[in-house]
Amino acid sequence: MRLTSRLFSSVDWLLVLSVFVLVVLGLSAQYGITLAQESAALSIFTKQLVALLVGLLAALVLALSNYRQLQSYVRSLYVFGTALLLGVLFFGVTRRGTTGWFDVGIVDLQPVEFVKLILILTLASMLSRRTHHRIGWREVIITGIPVGVYAFLVMLQPDVGSAALMIGIWVFMLLMAGMDRKVMLVSVIGAVTLMMVSWLLLFQDFQKERVLTFLEPERDPLGVGYNVHQARIAIGSGRLWGKGLGFGSQSQLQYLPEAQTDFIFAAIAEEFGFIGVLLVLGAFFLFLRRQWLLLLRVRDDFSAFLIVGIASMIGIQMAVNIGMNLGLVPVTGLPLPFVSYGGSSLVSSFMAFGILVSISMRTQHGIAVDNPLDTDSLIA
Question: Which PANTHER family match (predicted)?
């Protein structure tokens, strides 16, 4: 029990604060959006609160557990993730052209959100055993196989955004491991070729139209380009202080589609203004900054790769989501971590947060490597 109190005393409270700010802003915006909608919309907000409680519980369990034990279950977790991605293709429900959800009654489960975290654990385990020499073709191929399997299954849904995110996480972790420059150059060429092949064989018509409209904004202003156009109006109309909670005209009058998910950033900007935007960006900066400082303190490769993987996942999703709200990148459907509506995304983000807290607490006391803990010793 004394050890547990020591660990809690070393919690990175600035990291906790960053997540708290993001969750509060997300819930506030979602509640404001539901005010002018039908009563059924309130159940969406209630589901998000339930997901928040589940996420907090998962984060607490992971924080109290020894994160290094996860390395022993990597193979089993990877097989489980593969089974989920295969199962959703055959038994999942289709929404907005993507077959990516299990309908389990009162909630929908989106497997890809949890598979992202499984992939990070898998890559961290693999790369931590191969850091005593530069990353060459052998390491790229070996680590690329699990990434390719997951990305291919996700593309079949099709969910291009999540598949690209997985590849992005892999690239960042390879760079962290010390990837050879020649290998990097050829890999970039291969990635471009793969995207061209995917465009011809795997992309659906609506996905192609998103990219084409991004390149030519006036191509379809009332169709595919409508979402981004309305998001820009919402962001600009918020000005400095915003219109107030529940008074955003674009979100309240439902001019802004997917205001609770893809375009939650625009809704926050409209209702809370530039101050709200600064809070979102500041919270994400603080979250990533604390991970960077934690990365400088850890003393083993598995911990370091876990931090890089989680930072990549959160950072890429943040950049892409905000970018598509501003019209800087094509609309991909990636949620804004801790902010967008979506139970699976929120729970997965909190699981990643719990792992970070576990690393931080154990690194603080110098026990990440020298004296691994198990769950029983924490409870005792």
Answer: CELL CYCLE PROTEIN, PEPTIDOGLYCAN GLYCOSYLTRANSFERASE MRDB
